[in-house]
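Last lecture ended with a question: if I hand you only a sequence, what can you say about the shape of the protein? Today we answer it with a concrete record. The protein is histidine kinase. Below, first the input exactly as provided, then the predicted structure, then a couple of comments.
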Amino acid sequence: MSHEIRTPLNGILGFTHLLQKSELTPRQFDYLGTIEKSADNLLSIINEILDFSKIEAGKLVLDNIPFNLRDLLPDTLTILAPAAHAKQLELVSLVYRDTPLALSGDPLRLRQILTNLVSNAIKFTREGTIVARAMLEDETEEHAQLRISVQDTGIGLSSQDVRALFQAFSQADNSLSRQPGGTGLGLVISKRLIEQMGGEIGVDSTPGEGSEFWISLKLPKAREDKEESLNIPLGGLRAAVLEHHDLARQALEHQLEDCGLQTIVFNNLENLLNGVTAAHETPAAIDLAVLGVTALEISPERLRQHIWDLENLNCKVMVLCPTTEHALFQLAVHDVYTQLQAKPACTRKLQKALSELIAPRAVRADIGPPLSSRAPRVLCVDDNPANLLLVQTLLEDMGAEVVAVEGGYAAVNAVQQEAFDLVLMDMQMPGMDGRQATEAIRTWEAERNQSSLPIVALTAHAMANEKRSLLQSGMDDYLTKPISERQLAQVVLKWTGLALRNPAPERQNEAPEVHVGPLVLDHEEGLRLAAGKADLAADMLAMLLASLDADREAIRVARASQDVHALIERIHRLHGATRYCGVPQLRTACQRAETLLKQNAAHTEEALDDLDKAIIRLESEARVTA
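The predicted structure:
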């Protein structure tokens, strides 16, 4: 049912995105933007209703896997930061120092709840601050009682509004529901999820002054992993800090001190520069300046001059700015002595940035220029050439530097020989698969006391047990195929702190002619899956067609020898290739055969026969339309 509902909407969104790349008048572009936002909102509403139905039916199963609270909170805010910064809101993450970080639970559902709370805060706050806090209420040797809250300076709620908030299909009063909203199910779902976790959720609010939504939750403690070392002696180094927002400054000070730095706070840039100058060539010299800025406070041109002055005093600079102003301040960040990071600061990203800024050769000898002045280097790993071609093309079009390799052994070798900011790793590959390659990389890093390289799994399946398995094998995150430009940009931003540029729209005098074929071969779908790039769509289809004879023969041989493992591996590989081509009939046949084989279910032979027929039909159709 969920598939039947979502599929038409995904088509609307996909073709709207494709049409936005064509030549349009300003009015047409605005109309398409409205269509896209409306379809996005409708898809969100449908997802909420489906979640609610699953909860009501008692079908929702929670995960219980280890996670790090200090990653969960800022990662959620990072995704929502552009919406907050577009309204010039300050977004702050505070994890109190006595709070246990290694916990067990369902991090995906917790992130869903936090996303809902923070999104609501952004929606109903016109100016001011949104603060997400995590603190310890009580603990035993095995459990931690946590309070996680989201506080805003928004319009606030009356006691009558509060009573209605957690009821299905209701929002607050009419004045609130006139704001951009949805079903009103978000908070209901959050409440049911928290209750299923054994906790409670509530709100404290005053009309006109803001609201604080809070969660009280008891979670098991997980085994405390050793903190990643920075591979550089930060202890004793001094950092000058400038951040005009009190809570943001407090959070930043704590994060820098947790990294081993001694902080000195200044109230403006001139005083900071004077302080660095006075300490220059003394035992109390300041090694680093961390500047939290906005374009309203200082222009990029003026900031650039201050950066030059600081560099002349052997003081390196880290600039923190709103996500919406990243491109503006990029102009002020120009060499290896400077880093540019998006707000809100995340401890993990700060650690990586500091390691490159303070001693850029200490972590990876060939890391090159700092993150702020170079494109992110991404290693793409997949045994399917068509998959590699698509991901590489999408990333390169958005400004990334990409190295593509086929197979796990090649991935391990590449990581040992070159420096990367991120690895995108396919899971099912012959020889050394994605899990084995990740484990080999983690072992190699541990032997050298080297910081962990973010590794993101690329998987065709996203069931709860598979997600748990991926994270436990050393992966940091996962993406479910087929992969979109937006997903790639988000995961690069999340794990590297770098915002990729939007791909340039295709300029053409007239729209390309699109032939809508039968279900066997759908050129229109292929064009959409290739992000509107006709040449790329044709190349990927050609690569798929070129491999079909070998795939069919390998499946025949494995079937004859009853080698189930080889069958699953080959069909999975073929299934992966179909996800990036307009071949819906073959894709469906692959999915059915692979699923039945894994389940050792009945009708497997019938599914394999159907798959063989689907290959023959596609080859025949391709010859006719060639």
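Comments.
1. The chain has five domains: 1-60, 65-220, 238-363, 377-496, 505-626.
2. The two ends are 36 Å apart (CA to CA).
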